[in-house]
Amino acid sequence: MVSLHRSSLRAAVMIALATAVWLFVTGTGFAQDNPAAQREKAMETIGDQLKVLVPIARGEAEFDGAKVNEAASTILTQLNRAEGLFPEGSGGGETRALPAIWEKPDEFAAALNRAKEAAAAVAEAGKTNDQAAFQESFKALGASCAGCHRTFRAPES
Fold first, then answer.
1. Of 115, 132, 133, 150, which sits 20 to 30 A from 26 (CA to CA)?
2. Rounded to whole angstroms, how far apart are CA atoms 7 and 2?
């Protein structure tokens, strides 16, 4: 009787694990039902990568093209991912996304595209190990992020 219970428990655990892996791999499940949470995670990831780039831009850390390329490529990946994370009706609540995102979708798309272009330029500067190009492209990235946040994100309370 005990072995039947253990095998049933083992089977239940295996099914739960397989389901969790499936949800993770396919991107379906709970997180997909909450685009605001996905946006927050994407922006946190971008913030983490900026913690690598800002000290380099300020001269507080040595320029390292590989690190620049990796951080900027991650930012670009998250910005590409963000395109699909603003469906109609996903504002309000805990999110700082302003209604302007949905009221001015073309302007929001243009702002997101400027950020993606700037992130791609930063990544390219890292790939080619061009510190001067990094400095210029990083300024453009910062300006695009700030502009988007000013227009489409509520300030922290």
1. 115
2. 9
Is 127 exposed, middle or buried, given 0-12, 13-18 or 19+ CB atoms closer than 10 A? middle
Residues, the chain: 157
Phi, psi of 97 (to 5 degrees): -65, 130
pTM: 0.78
Residues ≥6 apart with Cβ < 8 Å to 112? 79, 82, 83, 148
CA dist 79 and 74 (Å) reads 9
Q: How far apart are CA 147 and CA 150, in angstroms?
A: 5
Dist. CA 67–CA 56, nearest whole Å: 10
Write the burial class of residue 75 (CB in 10 Å: 0-12 exposed, 13-18 middle, 19+ buried). Answer: buried
